[in-house]
Design goal:
239 residues; mainly alpha; 0% strand
Length: 239
């Protein structure tokens, strides 16, 4: 199978998987917001009573509908500009400062993108509102995996661009490690500081591995250099 044929098959598979993921996300939202919202309401209602800042937040001045619309419009415009600037700076940062692609994609970009949600989750966890905290963190993760990523593939398809879910082995291994770790801690539906501390250690370990992992084009150079040295050695042995 030629390289072009393999690339074409990967793109076709990615587009089909993207459609399936978007359908899965739509069903998930419908399940959460319409058919089984009572389950989530009961869980979140328990967390609301644990909020130590509830009375103070309720006494704060509220924005009117017009002010909310204006604030959202300005925020979306600013976030869009910041996102465009961030995407444009990724390649120069990787090339000029010797930062690996996995570290940029797994650590830096998500850390900046979800910084506000991280602070909200930390505040909720501090008030022992674990369901709210997990909802913010895992909800954003599900949105990225089931909506944002697939939508990017579909939009690129509409623009006649070949964009695929072409993950490296390192990315898949780190994803499995994160899923197994978080799933194991959530299995008993309880949490403590030890599990939180171990989760932070796993995150730091992934960050260190991602920082020192070579970029894909560097791996290609190493593989090409090794193949060239092997062929030279075989030629020399023949003579």
């Amino acid at each position: 199978m030629s390289e072009d044929k393999l690339t074409s098959d990967v793109v076709a598979i990615s587009r089909l998987v993207a459609i399936l993921l978007l359908v899965a996300y739509a069903v998930f939202v419908f399940f959460q917001a319409r058919t089984h919202h009572g389950i989530y309401d009961a869980i979140f209602e328990q967390d609301e009573h644990r909020d130590k800042d509830k009375v103070r937040d309720q006494n704060k001045d509220k924005l009117t509908l017009t002010e909310c619309v204006i604030a959202l419009t300005v925020a979306i415009a600013l976030v869009t500009l910041i996102a465009i600037a961030l995407v444009r700076e990724i390649e120069p940062i990787v090339e000029e400062h010797s930062i690996s692609d996995p570290f940029m994609g797994l650590i830096l970009v998500p850390l900046v993108e979800k910084f506000a949600e991280h602070l909200t989750a930390i505040d909720e966890a501090w008030d022992n509102q674990m369901n709210f905290a997990l909802s913010h963190v895992l909800g954003a993760t599900l949105q990225t995996a089931l909506f944002n990523g697939p939508l990017t593939v579909i939009v690129a398809w509409g623009l006649d661009m070949d964009f695929a879910f072409d993950f490296q082995l390192f990315d898949i291994a780190m994803l499995l490690l994160a899923v197994i770790t978080v799933g194991g801690f959530l299995r008993d539906q309880k949490s403590n500081y030890l599990e939180g501390f171990l989760s932070v250690l796993v995150y730091i370990a992934i960050a260190v591995a991602a920082y020192y992992y070579p970029n894909p084009h560097d791996l290609e150079k190493l593989e090409g250099g090794g193949a060239a040295e092997g062929s030279t050695g075989s030629e020399g042995g023949g003579h």
